[in-house]
């Protein structure tokens, strides 16, 4: 049976921190806009900041739909989801309000140390999620799958780029500055990081 939780602590926090992958879902306010669902991985890119706040590092390499939906005036809706692919069955969701902290935001220097193991030139935003509803469901239909190891291609590819090269990459990539629905997404030109002198 599903259950709601008042906070992200104890077994719930442990479950989140043990999962190698999670999913994010957002949508624009307009009824005919594109719903976005994204898998997220890479070790060290998600942290539980406190009992009602999580954050994850947003990287280059994909479009910026999530960022656009979080920036949309009056929106900010986001759901994070984890599935137990091993161990006891569980699906956990955190519904909340999200905000994008970009590289030129004074808070960037406050948040980025949480991601020191995963930080690199491709870091373009930090998504902070303020939980409004935390709940689980049975997960009985989720299959068992074995986790082998992290894929290294993304980190290796972007580690070869300088910050200037990554900024140039962002300028050329479609649907980074503007979402599929025409909403402002990643600020371009890519802002300089506030934590780099």
How are the SSEs placed, and which strands pair?
Elements: E1 3-5, H1 10-18, E2 22-26, E3 36-40, E4 46-50, E5 53-59, H2 65-71, E6 77-83, E7 91-102, H3 108-111, E8 123-137, H4 153-159, H5 163-172
Antiparallel strand pairs: 1-8, 2-3, 2-6, 4-5, 5-8, 6-7, 7-8
Structure description:
The chain has 197 residues and is α+β, with helices and mostly antiparallel strands. It has one domain (3-172): Pnp Oxidase, Chain A. 19% of the residues lie in helices and 30% in strands. It has five helices and eight strands; from the N terminus they run βαββββαββαβαα. It has helices at residues 10-18, 65-71, 108-111, 153-159, 163-172, and strands at 3-5, 22-26, 36-40, 46-50, 53-59, 77-83, 91-102, 123-137. Strands 1, 2, 3, 4, 5, 6, 7 and 8 form an eight-stranded antiparallel beta sheet that branches. A hairpin with a 7-residue loop joins strand 6 (77-83) and strand 7. It starts with a strand and ends in a 25-residue tail after the last helix. The model has no long low-confidence stretch (mean pLDDT 95).
Features of this protein?
alpha+beta, 197 residues, 5 helices, Pnp Oxidase, Chain A, single chain, 8-stranded antiparallel beta sheet
| Biggest sheet statistics | 8 strands, antiparallel
Overall 3D shape: globular
What is the residue-averaged pLDDT? 95
CATH superfamily membership: Electron Transport, Fmn-binding Protein, Chain A
Give the SSE string: EHEEEEHEEHEHH
Distance separating the two termini:
52 Å
Structural class label: alpha+beta
* CATH-defined architecture: Roll
Give the oligomeric state. Answer: single chain
Given this structure, which CATH class is correct? Mainly Beta
- From the 3D structure, determine the CATH topology: Pnp Oxidase, Chain A
From the alpha carbons, calculate the radius of gyration and give it in angstroms: 17 Å
Task: Please count the helical segments.
Answer: 5
């Amino acid at each position: 049976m599903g259950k709601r939780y008042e906070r992200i602590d104890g077994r719930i926090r442990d479950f989140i921190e043990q999962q190698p992958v999670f999913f994010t879902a957002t949508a624009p306010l307009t009824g005919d806009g594109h719903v976005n669902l994204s898998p997220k991985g890479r070790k060290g890119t998600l942290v539980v900041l406190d009992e009602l706040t999580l954050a994850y590092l947003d990287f280059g390499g994909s479009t910026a739909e999530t960022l656009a939906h979080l920036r949309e005036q009056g929106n900010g809706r986001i759901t994070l989801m984890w599935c137990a692919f091993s161990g006891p069955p569980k699906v956990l969701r955190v519904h909340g309000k999200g905000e994008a902290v970009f590289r030129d935001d004074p808070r960037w220097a406050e948040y980025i140390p949480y991601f020191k193991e995963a930080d690199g030139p491709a870091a373009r935003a930090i998504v902070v999620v303020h939980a409004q509803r935390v709940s689980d469901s049975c997960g009985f239909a989720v299959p068992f799958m074995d986790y082998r190891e992290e894929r290294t291609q993304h980190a290796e590819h972007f580690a070869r780029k300088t910050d200037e090269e990554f900024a140039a990459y962002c300028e050329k990539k479609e649907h980074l500055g503007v979402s599929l629905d025409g909403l402002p997404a990643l600020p371009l030109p890519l802002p300089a990081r506030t934590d780099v002198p």
